[in-house]
Amino acid sequence: MLQPGFHLRYNGPNRTRRRIGVDNRDKQQSGNTLSIRFSLAQITREARIQLIESSLSAYPHEACGVLTGSIREPLQGTSDGIVRVNAVHPIRNAAGEPLSTFSFDPHEWVRTMYRIQKNRQSLVGFYHSHPASPPLPSDADLRGLQHGKAASYWIVSLAEQTCPVISAFGVNGISLYPLMLA
Fold this sequence. Notes:
By secondary structure, this protein is of the alpha+beta class. The protein has helices at about 45-60, 105-120, 140-145, and strands spanning about 5-10, 20, 30, 35, 40-45, 65-70, 80-90, 120-130, 150-155, 165-170, 175-180, 180. A hairpin with an 8-residue loop joins strand 1 and strand 2.
């Protein structure tokens, strides 16, 4: 059973996608200030295919990388901000145990960020895959949030390789909350 949040089940490039799960749009109070929260995530068809292919090509290791696109911040007093992904930038997994963890290769990370800035793209998220488990953040995933700043965090589950599942999460400090995939 998947946890709250909308997840995309991927049925191949020419098949339809199906949403499963429930939406959670609660605003969280962080100290005395209200954190910016996004409630929706969108990913173009091309980026979705690229995200799945990147994850499958790294199997059985965890894939990882960054996502670029655009962000529409919520209007004051609402939670309708949108994170839109239109490009996927895979980065080699340099973790010591790539079957169960990921770590960006430092040289590829720098080259990728340079290319993103040079092309005037906006970093909107990080992603990685779970080769054999659901697309839910692990404790290690949450600890890794301390090392980078992005509006969203995406996980691709390959537990069923013929039907990968994508989940998107908003980032609030060092915690994650589910985003509805639209």
